[in-house]
Write a structure and sequence with these properties.
By secondary structure, the protein is α+β, with helices and mostly antiparallel strands. It has three domains: 47 residues; 76 residues, no CATH class; 97 residues. It is 20% helix and 37% strand. It has two helices and 14 strands; from the N terminus they run ααββββββββββββββ. A hairpin with a 4-residue loop joins strand 9 and strand 10. The longest helix is centred in the N-terminal third of the chain and has 45 residues. The protein is elongated, with a radius of gyration of 51 Å.
Length: 273
């Protein structure tokens, strides 16, 4: 204790000097740490960690750009009335009718009856002679433009014979009963008269060939209360101040021709008998 009493100033000074020495020894580490911290903050400010942008939904802008590539088409035809005055027409009974595509002109035609027109081929008779067999074949062309062909025309044929309708291609018949024959015919193409390209058919006495080739129609034009009976392809319909030629008739459509313009008119097939 006496030593401390006599030398406490020295002990205190030594402790202070020791603390200063420790502080001086720690100072380089502190400077380095602070320097690293400052550089880290500088890097964060200069080179921040930027998150990538999320994918943008460009569907709406792309749709708008796509619409801009499509030219605008302005249609001022019917039923728009800006440049199309509404015409009226007086009916036969004096009524005024607002004219449109459905109640005036070809589209106003009504089909009241539809009748199929057939191509019918029959084997009417087989004659066996010493020189070979002959076959009497009947043909009815109900759709022909020639009225004479609407009734049966008969042809006497041998194997290989041709006419304006068919060629007798082959015959099958039992040896003990040659009159019980099946004739195989090749039909002539009406658009190519020199060719038989409509296919082969088989005809027997019990089983004639029958095919719908066209139709004939009964029609009415309600605005004028004008009926047309038994009209076929090639016939003429006169109504609404115009003559319309029947260009074609199918199962559910009639095509009219006037002034180099075709008018396809749909109708209900249930109108037929």
């Amino acid at each position: 204790m006496d030593f401390l009493k006599k030398h406490y100033e020295k002990v205190l000074l030594g402790a202070v000097l020791l603390g200063l020495a420790v502080a001086v020894g720690f100072l380089p580490f502190k400077i380095t740490s602070d320097k690293e911290e400052l550089e880290k903050k500088r890097d964060q400010l200069i080179h921040p960690n930027v998150k990538p942008l999320a994918n943008q939904d460009l569907a709406q802008p792309e749709s708008m750009l796509q619409r801009l590539t499509i030219p605008v088409a302005l249609d001022f035809s019917a039923p728009h009335k800006l440049f199309n005055p509404m015409p009226w027409q007086k009916a036969q009974d004096g009524r005024l009718i607002k004219v449109n595509e459905t109640n005036v002109g070809p589209n106003a035609l009504k089909v009241t009856k539809q009748t199929p027109l057939y191509l019918i081929i029959t084997l009417d008779e087989v004659t066996v002679t010493d020189s070979g067999s002959r076959y009497k074949i009947g043909v009815v062309k109900q759709a022909s433009p020639k009225p004479a062909e609407w009734t049966k025309r008969q042809y006497y044929c041998r194997l290989g014979d041709t006419n304006e309708t068919f060629r007798l291609r082959d015959v099958r018949a039992p040896a003990d009963n040659p009159t019980n024959a099946t004739v195989i015919l090749e039909l002539r193409d009406p658009d190519k008269p020199t060719e038989f390209s409509r296919g082969r058919i088989e005809v027997t006495k019990e089983k004639p060939f029958k095919r719908i080739d066209s139709y004939k129609l009964d029609l009415e034009y309600p605005l004028e209360k004008k009926p047309f009976r038994d009209k076929r392809v090639g016939g003429v319909l006169s109504f609404n101040g115009e003559d319309y030629k029947i260009f074609a008739i199918t199962e559910n459509e009639i095509v009219l021709l006037a002034n180099q313009q075709k008018w396809p008119v749909k109708y209900n097939v249930s109108a037929g008998p």
